[in-house]
Amino acid sequence: MFAVILLVLDIVISGFVIMNMKNGMNAGEAEAAGTGGNILYVGGSGPNNYTKIQGAINAASNGDTIFVYSGTYYENVVIDKSIHLVGEDRNTTIIDGNHAGDVVNITADRVTMEGFTIRNGDGWPYAGVKIYHGNDNSIYN
Questions:
Q1: What pLDDT does residue 46 have?
Q2: Do residues 110 and 133 make contact, with C-beta atoms less than 8 angstroms apart?
């Protein structure tokens, strides 16, 4: 019976590792790779890498994916293109608006945003995430 429990535990753990890794990428990167378009990175190193989320958005085209590595990014972001913005981990990938207006302002159609903690927007009438004249947008955490 002990051997059966170990076997089941081994299968469960192996499945977890397989689900969280695909072709050497973590789950967020693998999901980003499946969207078509180019992949731009924020907070990492190498080609197509930016230090600011807004810098990557400015360089992106419709249909691109921006993958943001864990960290705290002190900026206010305007998404004006149909992109997929993916945070590495919703608890450790943070956009901090530094109490200066909307933290994220979406003005485009077909934007997907997921895997972020949004904090420190300004008070009324500002928002953590504001969708202004956009259609078919999705926000996941």
A1: 82
A2: no
Beta strands 25-26 and 21-22 are antiparallel
CA 106 to chain centre: 14
Question: Is the C-alpha dihedral spanning 106, 40, 27, 116 positive or negative?
Answer: negative
Cβ atoms within 10 Å of 29's Cβ, excluding its own: 21
The domain limits of the chain are: 1-25, 35-140
CA distance 120 to 104: 11
CA distances, 131 to each of 19, 49, 95, 111, 113 (Å): 32, 26, 16, 10, 12
Query: From its phi and psi, is residue 115 left (phi > 0), alpha (psi between -120 and 50) or beta?
Result: left
pTM: 0.76
- Sequence-ordered alpha helix ranges (H) in 21-136: 27-33, 53-59
